[in-house]
Fold this protein.
Amino acid sequence: MHDTSTAATTDQDPSTLHSHWSVRVVAYVAILIMVNVMVDTVLAAPTFVLPHLARAFDTDQFAWIGASAMLSGAMWAPLLGKSADVYGKRRVLVITLLVAGLGGIVSLLAPNLAVFVVGRLLQGAAVASLFLTVAIIRDICVPKFALAVTGIVTTGSALFGIATPFVLEPVLETFGWQAVFVASASFAALAAILVRVIVPDTKRRTPGRVDVLGAVVLGIGLAGVLVYISLGQVFGWLGAPSLLSLGVGIAALLLWFLVISRRPEPVIDIRAISLVLGLGFLIVVMGTGAYQSKLQLVGMMVDVSPDEGLGYGLASPLALGLMFGIPSMGIALGGIGAGYIAQRVGPAWCLTAGIVTGTAASTLMFFGNGPSTLPVAVTASFLLSLTAGNLVTSGFNLASILAPAERQATVSGMVMVMIAIGSVTMNFVGSAILGATSVVRDGETVNTATGIYAYIATIGGVFLLAAIPAFFLMRKMRRQVSVSTDTASFSHI
């Protein structure tokens, strides 16, 4: 990766970097995991209550409810990544936590869907928290040790998800869907305090400026195109609102690419992205998008009883806990395992393994009658969760060994943009499939087995397509050193 930025004004003394576990490192990791628990309450927890939210706001736009925060994250990430390199990662992390907490309060008190979506857009700042925790780890640990620690920080929060569904179900019955957003705002406030008081500020700064205008234009472009995918289902793909959104999005992206990105110090220097990093981004955007859309699908399947005769349904006393709790172990195992394995073979191999397990899980779900067989659905979900933990950790690790020290947050932010784009796009695609195949039954619109299975087949197809860039990535990386303690040695890839 060819870096054109100015070197950091304050670099780390190698002797101060952590190379092994200690009480201090454990404390830092525990706090950063708490930060990512908050991220989970923003991104994953609302999927547990999608039917409740749809009823509360009288809408069938599941994709907006489930993906609005991730869409917002795609807009926030470039600005916050660049800001973190220039002004300090800890400072920007604290700010993002406070903004996300405010978003949780707005969502909690929202009187209608429009205000609720505003709250979710504010909560989208939490997406930046994830990649900033990775960048902080890279600042305080030696590169090889950081690979393993990154796996723990990015996916360790999933362990809390094991108990979450079992605890959440009685809480929802007592307090309603609002409990999710109370928890989110509370975690954000507590995490902000702990990060500010305990996590060190390495004082590493990259001289330069933050192109706020460029970040806004890029964010508008991404949002315009992604919103079009959603509005097309409601107003028609050639409807005026849909075409207006698409037109604004494309115009903003063209303006940013042809004019703004060519100025000095753009928020994302796409011309500095190497082939290897680009292939890694492509794998991440496809693989994580497929997994995130699976969460939306599971939320619908566990809300339907097999007795309804729709040809699918997993509702039972244990369904919610099994479908969301057990796979949480898969996310943690996948991420932590990928971090330690990357120390030996490199993150590219781990990315490829993730595509293999994702394809296998989708195949099992489709041919094993997963939508109506709980043991099969739980097994497939566990495999998909292994895939998700692996892909997120390996995507960040690949970026970290390719990016120079002074651009860690910026490049990590680009990984988060890929995750956000994949998640939002696949959620909307899945929602479109279900909407096109739904039927009216007893005066109520319900999803059909045809739609459910088409949704699963689409997820599997995305994993198969991701195997193409994975193949070329492996060919490229076979000629490179897998892992080095010197990040700069990868700058030519």
Summary: Residues 211-266 form one domain. The chain is about 75% helix and 0% strand.
